[in-house]
Design a protein that fits this description.
heterodimer, A: alpha+beta, Ubiquitin-like (UB roll), DNA polymerase, domain 1, 5-stranded mixed beta sheet, B: alpha+beta, 3 domains, 6-stranded mixed beta sheet, binds FE2/S2 (inorganic) cluster
Chain lengths: ~160, ~725
């Protein structure tokens, strides 16, 4: 059904008239011009489209936009603060945790969600939490290292 | 022309240093624009109707109901009534609409009637393929130390000679080995956003071949290649499947031409898997005979497989793989199946050839009751690429990193921990990786800024960063000081990124252009420093006199001498030209440590070691990335990935990511990468390494499973079910 929705994306409230059954992924990308969340499978199986909804990672491809009206939506574009990269982004950069980078924004959002819940995850916990995120280029080992580095950065410790 | 060369290890300031990729920020902030992220004003969204049948004839196709769907603007029919369709997913028609939803509705509304035809997809079953008339010879070769006499029938002689050699062998191994087809499964699907305007086409294409795809669009639209610009800034994976506009890209362009609107057409995941690239299968029956030291003296094999409806099986030229005895007979049978044609898949032919032939060496070790390492070592005398010494050294390093000696036990003889047994396996590989054609235009402006243009692409391999590092090295600057432009067919032509040829090509063109430019700059600077141009060097942001560093001027001051005319140089490298900057042929050794659960059949990766030569390493950071990635893709093919087709209907049953199993974070274990770069290899110059690391993992993992369990699981992927079946067969 087409209706007026208020979406709070990266701290900014926007009123949009939308089919409320459309996927959050398509609204973010095609209506709001936020391309960080990617289409990989459209069915919740790759994690490339991950964003945070009220701080919790969600697959935006299988999330109907009507169900997240009024909730706090964070995309990778909303992570930078005062022109500085978020520690998770910084850590991905330093560990070189990507190749083609197509999975990266989803990975970073998944990692942000994990570190909010568990600021000091073990390698095993990282692997379990991010299990639904595919990286076809095979950068997994460095992704685990990046999340561990991010955890240290967030604690203010030397990475 | 300058005297092209790389600086020595000691002199190098940038190359050989771990450098973070220049596009890292763009990739981690979401600002990197992939083809899928290109939306043009007023664009239509296109969706495809894929054929539901694997083999049929279209008897009727009616698109008029689709045109009545609100929002649908155009329907392009690609296959008319009467067309024979030979694989599931083949695109019959494309619907372009104002929204994605309308396009999808339009696709559903198209009415098609089909006449079913016979389906064959059992590529593993040679006899069934023969009965179905689906086979053709892919050639073969016989090589024996003894030559047939003038009156001998060659075939009969070969038969007798092979039998004689097998009989004379101390050890004989007879076996069956195989590897199923897999897909490319790029995370960013194939597709494009195109705009036809004023007789020109602008195509944002997800491609590995920016410079070589304009032509493909042009031909179909009756344009010249110069009327077309192809752009690709970022690409979410290609692995050999994205060299062409593809007929769906051309269809999008045609729709744009007809409607006067930009068109975005990206494949959905299921069509991506069905259509957009797969790797041929390979199944091999073999007998080998070895002497008392385990050196294989005779190899006799027949393999078969499918590249789908048009492609062939794995080439006979690479079987047996790398280690080729003096006597061999090999032949291959191509099988035609109702599956989409195969495409070049990272290191075409090699992973399969390695998987079906280096497993044989490990089985020989098992039969002999010897350490697999020693049997591989003994067989290095059969290395046909002249790299026996390199392999020997790489094996030593890999074994140390793996802890091979401490951990190794004979096949099936290790301790059992509950239901878990562990094992080690190894394999080795080779690849060409020679530099591709590449041109680079370089501009140095009087304000000191440096900018380059090259029609190459960065698949995530780090090409951009390599270009910048080569320029920075030459000019004594830092990579961040130079601006690298790639990703447009309007830039100087550079080859497709396939076969590990890019790093060599762009290193050649950029180093050549930079050395030429520097020589010109030195000529301007020399009088200022009261020196000869040959005495100058560019180091640390300054141009200075060698041996008298106090006589120097800054890079900026030097460039100011250009006056009002920027210095512009274009240089090219043509593939195959002997050069001190690049070469080809690499060697690599890999070792796997796995744990196998005898009750569930589950194989877990514990540790993997990859020792890889690639000549001179420009950026160890991105170079190692390639190896991690290659190993992961290899693990995927060994344990998880498999295209599963319904044997009766030919339907691709696991064409969604929910069922098409790829490894996940917890599936790959610990991976250790060693860049093998002694002076002997470094002095060869740059060689690509995109393909080599993906070759050995399947054989190495198969050998590790066999070492753990004492049983060969014949066909990859080595899924729990197949492991259990193999264990049961032994029981
Ligand atoms: S696109 Fe959403 S999980 Fe794959
Ligand atoms: S970096 Fe390419 S998919 Fe992860």
């Amino acid at each position: 059904m087409r209706r007026q929705l208020e979406l709070v994306v990266n701290g900014e409230a926007r009123r949009l008239e939308l089919e409320d059954q459309r996927s959050l992924l398509s609204v973010l990308r095609d209506d709001l011009g936020l391309y960080g969340a990617k289409y990989g499978c459209g069915e919740g199986h790759c994690g490339a489209c991950t964003v945070l909804v009220d701080g919790v990672p969600r697959r935006s491809c299988t999330t109907q936009v009507g169900t997240v009206a009024g909730k706090e939506i964070t995309t990778v574009e909303g992570l930078e603060h005062d022109g500085k990269l978020h520690p998770v982004q910084q850590a991905f950069l330093e560990e070189e945790a990507f190749q083609c980078g197509y999975c990266t924004c989803g990975m970073i959002m998944g990692a942000c969600g994990l570190l909010r819940r568990n600021p000091r995850p073990t390698a095993a916990q990282i692997r379990t939490f991010l299990d639904g995120h595919l990286c076809r280029c095979g950068t997994y080992q460095r992704i685990v290292a990046a999340v561990q580095r991010a955890s240290r950065l967030l604690q203010g410790a030397q990475p | 022309m300058a005297n092209y060369a790389w600086p020595s290890r000691d002199e190098a300031q940038v190359i050989g240093k771990k450098t973070s990729r220049l596009d890292g920020v763009a990739k981690s902030t979401g600002t990197a624009k992939y083809t899928y992220d290109v939306n043009l004003k007023g664009q239509l969204i296109a969706k495809a109707l894929g054929c539901p049948h694997a083999h049929c004839r279209i008897t009727k196709i009616d698109t008029s109901p689709a045109l009545r769907v609100p929002g649908v603007v155009h329907v392009e029919v690609l296959r008319d009534a009467g067309s024979e369709i030979e694989w599931q997913g083949e695109i019959l028609a494309v619907v372009a609409a104002e929204t994605e939803g309308a396009a999808a509705e339009g696709v559903k509304a198209i009415r098609v009637e089909y006449e079913p035809l016979d389906v064959f997809v059992k590529d593993y079953d040679l006899e069934a393929a023969e009965r179905a008339g689906r086979t053709s010879s892919g050639g073969g070769r016989v090589q024996t130390e003894r030559e047939p006499g003038p009156n001998d029938d060659e075939d009969k002689f070969a038969d007798a000679e092979i039998e004689r050699l097998l009989k004379a062998s101390k050890y004989v191994v007879e076996g069956f080995y195989g590897i199923d087809p897999i897909t490319h499964c790029c995370l960013e699907p194939h597709g494009s956003t195109v705009e036809f305007k004023d007789g020109k086409l602008l195509a944002y294409l997800s491609t590995q071949n920016v410079s070589g795809t304009d032509d493909g669009f042009a031909r179909d639209l009756n344009l010249t290649a110069s009327d077309v610009e192809v752009r690709c800034d970022y690409i979410g994976g290609g692995f050999g499947s994205k060299f062409a506009p593809d007929y769906w890209g051309v269809a999008a362009a045609r729709i744009s031409q007809k409607t006067g609107r930009p068109v975005k057409f990206m494949l959905d995941r299921d069509l991506e898997l069905k259509l957009a690239g797969n790797r041929p299968s390979a199944y091999l029956k073999v007998r080998v005979g070895a002497d008392e030291n385990g050196v294989i003296q005779v190899w006799d094999s027949h393999h078969w497989g499918t590249g789908g409806a048009t492609g062939g099986a794995v080439s006979q030229n690479v079987v047996p793989y790398v280690l080729v005895p003096k006597n061999y007979r090999r032949r291959v049978t191509n099988i035609k199946t109702n599956a989409a044609p195969a495409r070049a898949w990272r290191a075409p032919n090699h992973p399969q050839a390695c998987a079906i032939s280096q497993t044989v060496i490990d089985d020989l070790a098992r039969v002999m009751g010897k350490d697999s390492y020693d049997v591989f070592l003994a067989n290095l005398v059969n290395a046909t690429n002249g790299k026996a010494d390199v392999y020997r050294e790489q094996m030593r390093i890999a074994a140390e990193l793996m802890g091979w000696k401490e951990k190794y036990h004979l096949h099936g003889k290790g301790p059992r921990n509950g239901s878990i047994v562990e094992g080690l396996g190894m394999a080795l590989h080779t690849w060409g990786g020679a530099a591709n054609n590449s041109s680079c235009t370089l501009r140095i402006r009087p304000d000191g800024s440096v900018e380059s243009w090259c029609g190459t692409q960065d698949l995530g391999t780090g090409t951009r960063t390599v270009c910048a590092m080569v320029l920075a090295e030459t000019f004594g600057l830092s990579p961040a000081d130079v601006r690298v432009n790639i990703g447009s067919s309007k830039y100087p032509v550079s080859g497709a990124s396939g076969g590990s040829t890019t790093v060599g090509g762009v290193s050649e063109s950029h180093r050549r252009a930079a050395q030429d430019a520097l020589e010109k700059l030195f000529a301007l600077v020399a009088p200022k420093l009261e020196a000869q141009a040959e005495q100058l060097e560019a180091v640390g942001g300054r141009i200075r006199v060698k041996g008298a560093p106090q006589r120097s001027i800054s890079w900026k001051e030097a460039c100011a001498l250009l006056g009002d005319m920027p210095l512009e140089v274009t240089q090219s490298y043509r593939s195959g030209t002997p050069s001190p900057l690049s070469s080809s042929q690499v060697a690599g050794v890999q070792m796997a440590h796995v744990a196998v659960d005898l009750e569930t059949g589950v194989v877990r990766m514990k540790k993997f070691v990859a020792v890889q030569d690639q000549g001179l390493v420009i950026n160890p950071k991105t170079c190692a990335s390639q190896i991690y990635g290659g190993v992961c893709m290899g693990i995927a093919g060994a344990l998880f990935e498999q295209r599963i087709m319904d044997p009766e209907t030919g339907a691709f049953v696991n064409c969604e990511l929910s069922d098409y199993r790829l490894p996940r974070l917890g599936d790959v274990g610990e991976i250790i990468v060693h860049l093998y770069e002694p002076d002997s290899e470094r002095q060869r110059g740059v060689v690509g390494n995109g393909e080599p690391p993906v070759i050995s993992p399947i054989a190495a993992i198969s050998n590790a499973i066999c070492n753990a369990t004492g049983v060969r699981v014949p066909v990859a992927p080595y899924t729990p079910q197949r492991v259990l079946e193999a264990l049961q067969r032994r029981a």
